[in-house]
Design a protein that fits this description.
globular, 28% helix, single chain, 10 helices, 21 strands, alpha+beta, five-stranded parallel sheet, four-stranded antiparallel sheet
Length: 426
C-alpha cells in the first residue's frame, strides 16, 4: 500500500465508504464500464453489517400487505443478487417475519468475506482498505481533487464523479457545502452490539426475553447495573452458536469526545450486563463476550442537502413517481431514547419512491450521495438508513455517476431505464 502507483489517480468514479451503499455504488458503476475506485477506512467492507455487527438486513423486502403475504425483495439488480447469493452460500437465512416486517438474518463475519469476493472479481473496480479521505478541493460546482491517506501515506486523486457513501457526509463537511444534523439529544441513538458465546439459546425463547428484561430492570433499580443497561436487547445469531446483545447509547458520531465515550461506555456496560446475567439468570452461567464490534453502529449523523429533501410525509404517504430510482419500504424507526424502537408505518403497505434528486448534492454537479447521509429529514432518514434500502440507493447513485453531468430531470429516466433491465425485484 505504500506504493500507490498501481492505484488509479484519475478514476471515472470515486466511491467514499465501503458499507452496503458504497459497495453497491462501486459495483454498479464498474458494471456500467466506469473505472471505479472504492475507499474504505476499515480493513474490510460491509460497514454496519460487519464492523458494527448489525446482523440483519432491514428494508430489503416490501412491507407485507397481510400476515399471509410472502416476502418480496423491494428493489431490482444488486439487491436481488445479494439476497439470493447470501442465502445460497449459507451466510444468511430467512426472510424472518418480525411483527409487520421481514428481515434477512446474516453472519457479519462471513458477509465481510462475501463482499471481498464480489468486489475482487469485478473488472474496472479497485478497492483500497485502511484508506480515509482527509481533504476535498472544490472548484465552483465540482470536486476536482480528493486527498487520501493510508497510515501516513498520502496521495491525491482527481475523480470525474464522486459518490459520498461515507454515512457522515464527509465531502460536504470537508468542502463546506450544505448539510444538516439533528441536535445530539434527538439523534437516532448509536447501537453498540457484542457477540456472546456459550449462552443457552433456549433462554431467548418463550418468556425468556421478559425474564431477561425483568432481571436487568431489578439490577438497575438496585444499582447493580447502570441505567444505560435499560433497553438491552438479545437475539440469537444466524448459524452461529452465539447471541447478539444490542445496547442503544446516546451520542454524536461526529464529535470525537462523544464518539470515544460511546465506544468505551458500550464495552463497560455490555460486559457488566453479561457478568450480572451469569450470576442471576439460568442459561447464562457460562456466557462470555466473544466478539466486540470494530466500531459502534451509527444510525444518524450529518445529512446532505440535495436537490430534493425526502420527508416524513413522503414515507408515510408512500409517495413515488415513475422516475423513482430506489424504493424505501422500512417504517420510520425512531431510536431517540433507550426504550427501544418506535415504529411509524405508512398508511398503506407500499414503498416510498426515492427520487434521484435526494441522491444528488444541491450545489456540486459531480457529487452523488448514497446510504444513511442522503438528503432527507431526520424522521425520513430513520426509514432510509437501513441496509436493504442503502443497497438500493447505492446502486442508483453508482449508475447515475457513470453519466456525463446532466440535469437530474434528464438523468433520472436514464437511470430508471438501466434499473429496469437488471434482475427484477421478486
Amino acid at each position: 500500500m505504500s506504493d500507490t502507483n498501481a492505484i488509479t489517480t484519475n478514476p471515472d468514479v470515486l466511491v467514499i465508504g465501503g458499507g452496503s451503499a458504497g459497495v453497491a455504488a462501486a459495483l454498479a458503476a464498474a458494471r456500467q464500464g466506469a473505472e471505479t475506485l472504492l475507499v474504505e477506512r476499515h480493513g474490510f467492507l460491509g460497514g454496519a453489517g460487519t464492523a458494527s455487527l448489525v446482523h440483519s438486513f432491514c428494508g430489503l423486502y416490501d412491507l407485507p400487505a397481510t400476515p399471509e403475504t410472502v416476502a418480496r425483495v423491494a428493489n431490482p439488480g444488486l439487491v436481488v443478487e445479494f439476497e439470493r447469493e447470501l442465502l445460497a452460500q449459507g451466510i444468511a437465512h430467512g426472510p424472518v417475519r418480525m411483527g409487520r416486517v421481514d428481515v434477512l438474518m446474516h453472519q457479519p463475519q462471513r458477509l465481510a468475506g462475501f463482499l471481498d469476493s464480489v468486489c475482487r472479481i469485478q473488472q474496472k473496480l479497485q478497492v483500497c482498505l485502511h484508506t480515509e479521505v482527509t481533504g476535498c478541493e472544490a472548484d465552483g460546482q465540482r470536486i476536482v481533487e480528493v486527498t487520501l491517506q493510508c497510515r501516513g501515506t498520502i496521495w491525491k486523486v482527481r475523480p470525474r464523479m464522486v459518490v459520498d457513501a461515507s454515512g457522515d457526509a464527509v465531502v460536504a463537511a470537508l468542502t463546506g457545502h450544505p448539510w444538516e444534523q439533528t441536535p445530539a439529544h434527538e439523534l437516532q441513538r448509536p447501537a453498540y452490539i457484542v457477540g456472546i458465546g456459550d449462552a443457552d439459546g433456549e433462554a431467548l425463547k418463550g418468556d425468556g426475553p421478559l425474564k431477561i428484561a425483568g432481571c436487568l430492570a431489578r439490577a438497575i433499580q438496585e444499582k447493580k447495573l447502570p441505567v444505560e443497561a435499560a433497553g438491552a436487547h438479545f437475539r440469537a445469531s444466524a448459524g452461529l452458536n452465539e447471541v447478539f446483545l444490542t445496547l442503544d447509547l446516546p451520542g454524536d458520531a461526529t464529535d470525537v469526545r462523544s464518539l470515544t465515550g460511546i465506544e468505551m461506555q458500550g464495552r463497560e456496560v455490555t460486559f457488566a450486563i453479561v457478568e450480572h446475567l451469569k450470576k442471576a439468570l439460568e442459561g447464562f452461567a457460562r456466557a462470555r463476550i466473544t466478539t466486540l464490534p470494530v466500531r459502534a453502529g451509527i444510525r444518524e449523523s450529518r445529512r446532505w442537502i440535495g436537490e430534493v429533501v425526502l420527508t416524513e410525509e413522503d414515507i408515510l404517504e408512500s409517495r413515488s413517481s415513475a422516475h423513482a430510482v430506489a424504493n424505501a419500504t422500512w417504517p420510520i424507526e425512531l431510536r431517540e431514547t433507550a426504550r427501544g424502537p418506535r415504529l411509524l408505518y405508512p398508511k398503506e403497505a407500499k414503498a416510498c419512491g426515492i427520487p434521484l434528486g435526494a441522491l444528488r448534492a444541491r450545489d456540486l454537479r459531480n457529487v452523488f450521495i448514497a446510504g444513511r447521509c442522503i438528503s432527507a429529514t431526520h424522521r425520513a432518514q430513520a426509514s432510509t438508513r437501513v441496509m436493504g434500502t442503502t443497497l438500493a440507493t447505492g446502486q442508483a447513485a453508482g449508475i447515475a455517476a457513470t453519466f456525463p453531468e446532466q440535469d437530474t430531470a434528464t438523468l433520472a429516466p436514464q437511470v430508471c431505464a438501466i434499473l429496469s433491465q437488471l434482475e427484477p425485484a421478486k
